[in-house]
């Protein structure tokens, strides 16, 4: 009896192996294997595909990007021709493995081949299509989700600012957007309107007092943040309302006359946001700008 069951098990294994889907090579030379075919809709030229991706070399995962909202692309526009040919064969819910030579893979990902990689081996990109939808539908949904996250973060940041103000017995004015500011010197000159050029001296710190940057050389030297690469230390000039500075500046500077000095408390959503450049400013950091409006010029 045991021999009978062993024989049946062997036949089952042989049958399963024979049923394994082979890789199919396209005209481009790229090979793929369909793992799961759900028969879902396929992408049109106006659609976005949302993908789950994992790249495997031997038994190691070499890449598994997980951007917020999923890895999104229009296969007709954003994918190189060989990868596009595979993606257009996949419908919503489908999954596939795509076989790349090391050279193909590292050209695709714009990275360098590690010296310890065996160039005779392949990289297998595991792809699953989680959604295919009109690009405007996806854009509107992502914007709504982002707006919700920003609103939640803004309330958190405002609570931190208000606690700091109370702790330091400061009275601040507040703009409708959420900029808090304390006037330390009233100016008598003109205010900057949208399109004007404003020259601003500033000192940037975190809420805990950590110095980050300044336009004043003496302040930089006194607080150990002087950097020769930062020279020259001069007032920063920008066009008001052009979106070339943090949003909090575009909102606050038009409220101040030339010659004014103020301390701005900026929520992260009006400053450097959830993804600042690498450095001392952490994601979702509330920041303080001590500023002086040096000059305002009509542009």
Walk me through what this model shows.
There is one protein chain. The chain is an alpha+beta fold and 299 residues long. It has two domains: 21-138, Roll (Chitinase A, domain 3), CATH 3.10.50; 150-297, Roll (Chitinase A, domain 3), CATH 3.10.50. Helices cover 27% and strands 30% of the residues. The chain contains seven helices and 14 strands. It has helices at 2-19, 75-78, 81-87, 102-108, 135-167, 217-222, 247-252, and strands spanning 24-25, 31-36, 47-57, 60-63, 71-73, 95-101, 122-134, 173-174, 180-185, 197-206, 211-214, 236-239, 261-266, 287-297. The strands form two sheets. Strands 1, 2, 3, 4, 5, 6 and 7 form a seven-stranded antiparallel sheet that branches. Strands 8, 9, 10, 11, 12, 13 and 14 form a seven-stranded antiparallel sheet that branches. A hairpin with a 5-residue loop joins β8 (173-174) and β9 (180-185). The termini are far apart.
What is the ordering of alpha helices and beta strands? HEEEEEHHEHEHEEEEHEHEE
Largest sheet: 7 strands, antiparallel
Mean pLDDT: 91
Helix-residue proportion: 25-40%
**Please, how many helices?**
7
Gross CATH architecture of the largest domain: Roll
- The total strand number stands at 14
Instruction: Determine the N-to-C terminus distance.
Output: 94 Å
Class of the largest domain, according to the CATH hierarchy? Alpha Beta
The global form is elongated
Low confidence ranges: 7-18
